[in-house]
Amino acid sequence: xxxxxxxxxxxxxxxxxxxxxxxxxxxxxxxxxxxxxxxxxxxxxxxxxxxxxxxxxxxxxxxxxxxxxxxxxxxxxxxxxxxxxxxxxxxxxxxxxxxxxxxxxxxxxxxxxxxxxxxxxxxxxxxxxxxxxxxxxxxxxxxxxxxxxxxxxxxxxxxxxxxxxxxxxxxxxxxxxxxxxxxxxxxxxxxxxxxxxxxxxxxxxxxxxxxxxxxxxxxxxxxxxxxxxxxxxxxxxxxxxxxxxxxxxxxxxxxxxxxxxxxxxxxxxxxxxxxxxxxxxxxxxxxxxxxxxxxxxxxxxxxxxxxxxxxxxxxxxxxxxxxxxxxxxxxxxxxxxxxxxxxxxxxxxxxxxxxxxxxx
Length: 360
Description:
Elements: H1 17-22, E1 54-56, H2 57-61, H3 65-77, E2 80-84, H4 90-104, H5 108-111, E3 123-125, E4 140-147, H6 164-189, H7 196-201, E5 205-213, E6 225-228, E7 234-239, E8 247-251, E9 254-257, E10 265-269, H8 271-276, E11 286-288, E12 296-304, E13 310-311, E14 329-330, H9 331-339
Helix pairs in contact: 3-6, 4-6
């Protein structure tokens, strides 16, 4: 059975960022204003050498050893990469963007028909909110569990916009194929059996979340999404065409903006792969910032093992030079732990660390 998390605090109308935007006020409610140490530094220049790697999926599918090595280096050195030539029809990417935007542009009363339900992170609203004094992100979310079937709550699959739900189905099938394929080549790059992750994961858990970031009159005071790593094995991010550049990843203690390549998908390593690779590949802290004039849409798919799967570092990746850093645990337990804690860097991964280990 799926783990049952604690209910997040429900967010009221005054904290719906689209409604705040409609009010056309320059004032930012106190619940959104970050402490000085958390605020984004606006206008900083990042060297072009800090661009995240781009992986050509067509080369992987042709069996290119160089592309496999490039993928392995991207996972180890960055934990993030973009994928081009991923074989997902561009028209499908355009449709999912269009319908996602149409959903967010619905009247609030319509979106409230699909509230983020108690005990889940599915529905419309803000996730990971557990106290009245917790700072809120400048973002509206709509999330759905997709696979396996039992995690779906069909009551919150929208009837508007028309064809929204069936497009989510089609999109999620294509993203699932991509994740399986990427995990195969990630395994090859680690000198493991190519099907090791698919066999281990069972019926993989898959969820999709759409994030909408309206323009913010004071982007220097807020965050679109708090810094965190993902609890998944892989995360696939589609950034809306024409959106402001908002995704940033933490590398060498510098927040690096991700410049989206045309028609590319951004992939990142989640906590699960960090554990399985015994820290060789690390999940990376990332966040979203806002823009004063432009809005931003992102569509995020989380791909993770079955809740029943027992996880721990793979024996092939543990030796005297790389001793075991993480304990064995049930993925369902970790999933419950992850979604019942606020986003706070990589703090949730402490759940899996062997107690004597102070760092990864």
